[in-house]
Amino acid sequence: MPRLDTSPDPTEWLLLIVSLPTQGATARMRIWRALKAMGCAALRDGAYLLPDKTEHRDALQELADECVREGGSAWLMVITPATPTDAGAYTQLFDRSADYAAAVKGWKQAAASFPSLGVAELTRLQKKLRRDYEALVATDFFPGEASLEAELAWADFNQRIDGVLSPDEPHETEGQIPRLDAADYQGRLWATRRRLWVDRVASAWLIRRFIDPGARFQWLAKTSDCPRRALGFDFDGAVFTHVGERVTFETLMASFELEDDRALMRMGAMVRSLDMGAGSVAEGAGFEAVLAGARERLPDDDALLAEIGGVLDSLYAHFERDAVRAKA
Question: 20-69: per-residue pLDDT in tens?
Fold first, then answer.
């Protein structure tokens, strides 16, 4: 994410000058798109500037080589600004303030459409805007106040999406997680918020699969309606909820001493990634898409748990196979 960068302007820059034959329209467009994606500043047609970094030098050299293969010419050189004024002018070419302002405006406009979007549509929108934002951050070589303001706006935007996808998401609590004996938790009534999303559906699956096979579930319209005899999970004040950096799925794992299961640990990392935006797990995007589609399609949470439970069974088998292979 963006951060305020107080480092001085670079003393050296990379300048790529390219020329392609007029019949190479396809190659020209491909190379231009690559230069744009890298965040190059165009000094004029065919002349592109970047701060001198190893990764930039390697990427520009690859494009230079491609230009030559396409029958054109390319020169990659290191240049030094002649004066401090020139150095400041070079840096100013990479000012992303206007881009951040446009992104923030787009997020505000998108937020106005939330009530009319289904879960799958909202999830797709969030992913697209995240890709766009991350691409902008990746080319912000001199982040400043605009990047910090955008970071706050992006966090607020995602909180609003989370509020639609998963209202009443629990807050973190602090403290130790007591170790419990699953034998004392058999045939119990468990309760959580209705319209299951990632952490809740995964936690319900974990309960029935590994903790209480005879578990019964009650899906709550309001958490204040949770019966006294029920074991609440994944809401503020519940018996099992977020603790520190652990999501409810991980809290349940720790409570019932399931953390030696490597496959479950992988699933816990996936749930945390999707629920908290902490890191990325390769299988997460696919699971989230399946869950979003199922939630659009199925009439109630019992049906949703039955269907997604099968998906989680398959994911567990996949992670378990990987764990066995890693031990071999």
Answer: 887 778 888 899 899 999 999 999 889 999 999 999 999 999 999 999 99
- Per-residue pLDDT reduced to its tens digit, 64-95: 999 999 899 999 999 999 998 998 999 999 99
* Pairwise CA distance, residues 88 & 253, whole Å: 54
Length, in residues, of the chain:
328
How deeply is 8 buried, as exposed, middle or buried, from its count of CB atoms within 10 A (0-12, 13-18, 19+)? Answer: exposed
d(C-alpha 268, C-alpha 247), whole Å:
8
Neighbours of 279 (CB within 10 A): 10
Contacts of 138 (CB under 8 A, 6+ apart): 39
CB 138: neighbour CB atoms within 10 A? 11
Distance CA 239, CA 307 (A): 26
**Three-class SS state of 311:** helix
d(CA 244, CA 259): 16
pLDDT at 7: 46
Which residues lie below 8 Å from residue 289, measured CB to CB, with a gap of 6+?
120, 123
**Residue 61: is it exposed, middle or buried by C-beta count within 10 angstroms (0-12/13-18/19+)?**
middle
Strands 73-79 and 216-220: unpaired
DSSP for 87-103 reads HHHHHHTT--HHHHHHH
Report angle CA 99, 100, 101 to the nearest 5 degrees.
90
Which helix (H) or strand (E) element contains residue 272? helix 262-276
Domain 13-92 carries which CATH code? 3.30.70.930
Q: Contact at 8 Å (CB) between 57 and 66?
A: no
Per-residue tokens: 210: 């590994």
In the sheet with 73-79, reading across from the earlier edge strand, the strands are: 41-44, 47-51, 13-19, 73-79
Q: Three-state DSSP class for 7?
A: coil
Give the DSSP H/E element, type plus range, for residue 33. helix 25-38
pLDDT at 129 over 50: yes
Start and end residues for every CATH 3.30.70.930 domain found in the chain: 13-92
